[in-house]
6-phosphogluconolactonase (Flavobacterium ginsengiterrae), 238 residues
Amino acid sequence: MIQIYNNTEEINVKAADLFVAAAEKAITEKGKFTAVLTGGSSPAGIYKLLASDLYKNKINWNKVYIFWGDERWVPLNDDLSNAKMSYSTLLSHVPIPAENIFEMYKDGVTPEDYAVTYEESIRKILGEEGKFDLILLGMGDDGHTASLFPGEAVLNEQTKWVDAYYLAPQKMHRITLTAPLINKAKQIVVVAFGEKKTHALKEVTTGAYNPSLYPMQLIKPESGELLFLVDKSAAGTN
């Protein structure tokens, strides 16, 4: 489903409302809320809104468990770190226990080894079902999501929940949730705005199925909901 909004502010409010609603529902039903954050610049406004007085007191943060969809393999204090951005905009401003936060990076280990460790952490919190309550995703201008980039072998992964690899065009390692795990989620919310997203959004949602070129097409929930929150520019309706 695609919902079109006038601007990013409206998208931020909708996404924050969805986050709160999902948290309340999950905590009421099973005593905890498991969420996956996305990186890049797109979600910063959402996170700041969730950290505001208007929103943060609506959530029992003691029962929230935070993971990430992907990460650049850089230290947590690096400006390229998705975790650093998430802390500065959200996590450092809400009373969530440190042990409930699972950063996608660790000093002194290889990204490949940590991918195995990260998957173990997911299984410990979610069980073998691996069903996150809510996954937030962005979409690149090229149609990638998380670190599922066009033409990369990770797109064909069927068994691992988490994978890591060297992304040659960016000259860096990445660690990412895989499509099979993402597709287990109860709710997947994709945020995209700006005219640079127009082509990819059109191809992903209405074009021929070619996930090696537009990896976002791999995101097809097994039984959950997939929702695109986009602005008029991304939708090409300006």
User: Anything to note?
Assistant: The helical segments are 8-30, 44-50, 82-89, 111-126, 179-182, 198-206, 232-235.
